[in-house]
Design goal:
Keywords: Membrane, Transmembrane, Transmembrane helix. The protein is of the alpha+beta class and 714 residues long. It has three domains: 296 residues, no CATH class; 253 residues, no CATH class; 97 residues, no CATH class. It is 30% helix and 17% strand. The chain contains 17 helices and 24 strands. The longest helix has 34 residues. It is globular and about 100 Å long. It starts with 5 loop residues before the first strand and ends in a 24-residue tail after the last helix.
Length: 714
C-alpha cells in the first residue's frame, strides 16, 4: 500500500515555468502548475510529433499549450522534432545533453480568452478547441505523482485495482444567474435512461467542491507516455485525446440542476418523457403531421386551377379549349393523389385508436356502445368522428367507389379486412393508375383534404374545418405554431390561410390525448422522437455559450468509499467549436477534376460506380426519363403557361412476369462534374435570397495547365 498522498500536476516538463522567473517560488505556486495542460496539435501525425518531442526535448511541450486562435491569427507551430534522417546514438545523446543544460524558458499562463485587435477593432477571442475536421487535435496531459520530495510518479497497480482517466465537465452559472463566473460544474452522467449534465453539489468546508467523481460519470481514457526528464530520470506523462468531435452530443444534452440526493428524476435528453407524451408524439408523427401536409397540398393546388381571368385571348377564342374540363381534370388529379395518401393516414389513425383508445375504437365498430364510454373526452372524440360527413362535389377517379358516410365509417372500413392493409402497403403504383387491375384498393373513398367543386369554382377543404367549432381542450403551447416554415406578418394571404387551417389539427391532438384513460393498462408506444428530446434539452441550456473544463481522475477500484477518487484541479476553461465555426481553421482539401472533359476524353474513363436499383425504382426512373427541366417548370406555373406532366403509366420493370431490378454502372468523373455544375447553378439561384455569391468562390490562375497536349493528343 502506498503511504504517500497522491496528487495531479501539470506535465513534468512544464514544472516551474509559468512565471517570468522560471524555477522561482511564484512559478511553483502558479495555477497552471497544479492543473492539467491542454496540448494543441495542427497535423494528422500529432502522436508522432508528441513522441518525437518527448524523446528529443520534452521542454518543447510548452509550445503545444492551447491558446486562443482563429484562422486569421493562428497559434505558432511547434517545432518539428521527428527524425527524418536517423542520427547516430552518440549524436542524439550529445544533442539531448546540450538541451538539458540550457536554462528553462518562461511560459505565459494559460487563459480562457484574449482581447486582440482585428482590422483595427478590438474583439475577445475565447479559447476554442477545434475539431479534427479543422485539422486540430487536443490532448489533455498531466502527471500523477506522490506528494514527497521530487514528486516521483505514482506507480499504478498492475492487477486492475487502480485506474486513471479524465472527465469532461460543463460549466453553467448558478441557478437564477444568467451568466458567470462564478460557475457550477456539471458532470456528464450516463445511465439506462440516457445522458444528462448533472450538477455537482457543493460540500461545505471543501476547498474544491467539484473535485469528486459522480456515480455513472463518463470516464475518458488516459494513456502513458514515457520520457526522461532533465535529470535523466524516467518519467511517465498521462495523456488523453479530448473528444472535440462529440461537441454536438455534449451541447445537446439536457441539464439537470437538482442532484439525485435531492430526489430528482434521472433525466436524459428530454425531461419528463412520460408514456402519455410518447403517445401524443406518436399520434402527431403518424396522423396529424402527414394530415397537415395533405392540407397544405390541397390549399396550394386549388389556386392553380385555371379561371377565366387567367386565360389568354387565343385560348378564349379557341373553341377546342374546354375550360370546364381542364378545371375538372386538374381538381381530379389533385384529389386522386390526396386519396391515396388519405387512405394511409386513415389506416394509421385507426391503428392508433385500436392500440391506445380501445373503448373509442369499440364504439367505432359499434356506435351503440357510445353511452358506455367512461369520460366526456372520449364521448366528445367519438361524436366528432361520427359527425364528419365529407359532403359531395369532390371530383375524383373513384372507379364506382362511394364515399364513406363519415370519418368513423372510414376508420372502420380501413381496418375491416386484412386485404385492405396488404393492398395499401403492397401497392407498386399510385392510385388511381391501377384502379381496375389491383382490386386491393379500399372499396370506399374518403378525402381528409382535397379540392371541392362549389358552384362553378374549386376550393380546398376537408373534415378538419369542423374542428374549429368543436368544444373541448385547446392545443398546448408546444404544439401550436410548430409548422415549418412559419409565416410572418408579411407572408401572402394564401400562406396565412394555410397556417390557420393546419392549426386546427393541433386541437385534434389534444382531443385524442385527453381521451386516453390514464388509469388504463399501459400500452406500448415508441420512444420520443430525437428532435423532440433535443428541443427540450436545448431549452434547458438556452443561451449558454458552452464552457467546459477537464479533470484527471485516479480511481482505486477496490477501495470503494474508503478511498475516494482523486481528481485534479480543473483545466483552463474552453469552448468546443462547432463544425461551421467562423473562426475555425480550414483543412486543406484538394479535389482534382478530370482534365480532359471533351467527349473524346470522358469516354476513356471507366464506368465503375454501381447503383443497385429495385424494380419499383426502375419503373419510376423510366417514367421520369422523358421529362426535362422545362417540363418541371411548366408544371408549377399558372395558366396560360401551365402544362401537366406527361407521366406514362408504368409499374415496376418486368421481363414477362418476372420483376427486373438493375445494377447501373456510371462514370464517376461525369457525376463529379455534374455535381459541381449543379452546385454553381443552385448557389446562383439562391443568391436571390441569401446574397452570398460574393463570398462563395475565389479562383487562382494556373498558367500552362492544359487538358490536351499540342496536337490534341492527351
Amino acid at each position: 500500500m502506498n503511504p504517500h498522498t497522491t496528487l495531479w500536476t501539470s506535465p513534468a516538463p512544464l514544472w516551474g515555468r509559468f512565471d517570468s522567473s522560471p524555477g522561482s517560488v511564484a512559478a511553483a505556486l502558479a495555477t497552471d502548475q497544479a492543473r492539467p495542460a491542454i496540448l494543441r496539435f495542427a497535423s494528422d501525425d500529432f502522436m508522432d510529433q508528441l513522441l518525437a518531442m518527448l524523446a528529443a526535448d520534452p521542454r518543447q511541450i510548452g509550445s503545444l499549450i492551447a491558446r486562443p486562435e482563429t484562422w486569421r491569427s493562428p497559434s505558432g507551430d511547434a517545432p518539428d522534432l521527428i527524425e527524418r534522417v536517423p542520427l547516430p546514438r552518440l549524436a542524439r545523446a550529445l544533442t539531448r545533453l546540450r538541451k538539458r543544460q540550457a536554462p528553462s524558458t518562461a511560459l505565459s499562463p494559460s487563459t480562457h480568452a484574449v482581447v486582440e485587435k482585428e482590422n483595427g477593432v478590438e474583439r475577445s477571442k475565447p479559447l476554442k478547441l477545434y475539431q479534427p475536421a479543422h485539422q486540430r487535435y487536443y490532448l489533455v496531459g498531466a502527471n500523477l505523482v506522490c506528494e514527497r520530495v521530487g514528486f516521483p510518479d505514482r506507480t499504478l497497480g498492475a492487477t486492475g485495482s487502480e485506474h486513471v482517466g479524465f472527465v469532461l465537465r460543463r460549466l453553467f452559472p448558478p441557478k437564477g444567474k444568467e451568466e458567470g463566473p462564478p460557475f457550477e460544474e456539471y458532470a456528464f452522467v450516463k445511465d439506462a435512461s440516457d445522458a444528462r449534465w448533472q450538477r455537482i453539489a457543493a460540500d461545505a468546508g471543501v476547498a474544491d467542491p467539484a473535485a469528486k467523481l459522480l456515480a455513472g460519470e463518463e470516464l475518458l481514457p488516459l494513456f502513458p507516455l514515457n520520457f526522461r526528464d532533465d535529470a535523466d530520470h524516467p518519467r511517465r506523462l498521462l495523456a488523453g485525446l479530448v473528444p472535440v468531435g462529440r461537441r454536438e452530443e455534449y451541447m445537446s444534452t439536457y441539464k439537470q440542476h437538482e442532484t439525485l440526493l435531492e430526489g430528482a428524476r434521472p433525466g436524459g435528453l428530454a425531461p419528463g418523457g412520460t408514456m402519455m407524451t410518447a403517445r401524443k408524439e406518436q399520434f402527431k408523427m403518424e396522423v396529424t403531421e402527414p394530415w397537415k401536409n395533405l392540407i397544405r397540398s390541397a390549399y396550394t393546388a386549388a389556386p392553380r386551377i385555371v379561371d377565366d381571368g387567367s386565360m389568354s385571348k387565343d385560348q378564349k377564342s379557341d373553341e377546342k379549349f374546354d375550360l370546364p374540363r381542364r378545371k375538372r381534370d386538374a381538381a381530379t388529379a389533385a384529389n386522386d393523389q390526396a386519396q391515396g395518401q388519405s387512405w394511409l393516414i386513415l389506416l394509421d389513425f385507426a391503428d392508433f385508436l385500436y392500440l391506445h383508445l380501445r373503448p373509442v375504437w369499440d364504439c367505432v365498430l359499434d356506435p351503440s356502445q357510445r353511452d358506455g364510454l367512461k369520460n366526456e373526452n372520449q364521448r366528445r372524440l367519438f361524436d366528432w368522428l361520427n359527425g364528419t360527413a365529407i359532403g359531395s362535389g369532390w371530383p375524383i377517379s373513384g372507379g364506382g367507389r362511394a364515399f364513406a358516410s363519415n370519418l368513423r365509417d372510414a376508420l372502420k372500413r380501413i381496418r375491416e379486412k386484412d386485404e385492405v392493409r396488404q393492398g395499401l402497403e403492397g401497392a407498386t403504383r399510385p392510385f388511381p393508375e391501377t384502379i381496375d387491375t389491383e382490386p386491393a384498393w379500399p372499396s370506399f373513398l374518403y378525402l381528409l383534404a382535397g379540392v371541392n367543386k362549389v358552384n362553378d369554382s374549386f376550393v380546398a377543404g376537408g373534415v378538419h374545418e369542423s374542428l374549429a367549432k368543436l368544444a373541448g381542450p385547446q392545443a398546448e403551447a408546444d404544439d401550436v405554431g410548430a409548422d415549418f416554415p412559419p409565416s410572418s406578418s408579411s407572408s401572402s394571404p394564401l400562406l396565412a390561410a394555410i397556417d390557420q387551417q393546419v392549426a386546427s389539427l393541433d386541437k385534434l391532438v389534444q382531443l385524442v390525448i385527453t381521451a386516453i384513460d390514464p388509469d388504463a393498462p399501459a400500452t406500448p408506444a415508441p420512444p420520443l422522437p430525437f428532435a423532440l428530446r433535443l428541443r427540450d434539452a436545448l431549452k434547458s441550456t438556452a443561451g449558454d455559450p458552452g464552457w467546459f473544463v477537464l479533470r484527471c481522475v485516479h480511481v482505486r477500484c477496490d477501495c470503494g468509499p474508503l478511498k475516494p477518487a482523486v481528481l485534479s484541479a480543473a483545466s483552463e476553461r474552453f469552448q468546443l467549436a462547432s463544425f461551421f465555426d467562423p473562426d475555425a481553421p480550414a483543412r486543406p482539401i484538394r479535389i482534382s477534376l478530370p482534365l480532359d472533359t471533351t467527349t473524346a476524353g470522358l469516354r476513356k474513363h471507366s464506368r465503375n460506380t454501381a447503383f443497385v436499383i429495385s424494380d419499383v425504382l426502375c419503373g419510376q426512373i423510366q417514367r421520369a426519363k422523358g421529362l426535362g427541366f422545362v417540363d418541371l417548370v411548366l408544371s408549377v406555373l399558372p395558366w396560360p403557361f401551365h402544362k401537366d406532366l406527361d407521366l406514362h403509366e408504368m409499374g415496376p420493370c418486368q421481363r414477362g412476369s418476372t420483376p427486373i431490378g438493375m445494377i447501373c454502372s456510371l462514370s464517376l468523373p461525369i457525376i463529379t462534374i455534374c455535381a459541381l455544375i449543379l452546385l454553381t447553378v443552385i448557389v446562383s439561384l439562391f443568391d436571390l435570397i441569401f446574397r452570398w455569391l460574393p463570398w462563395f468562390v475565389i479562383c487562382f490562375p494556373i498558367p500552362g495547365l492544359k487538358a490536351k497536349k499540342t496536337g490534341g493528343s492527351p
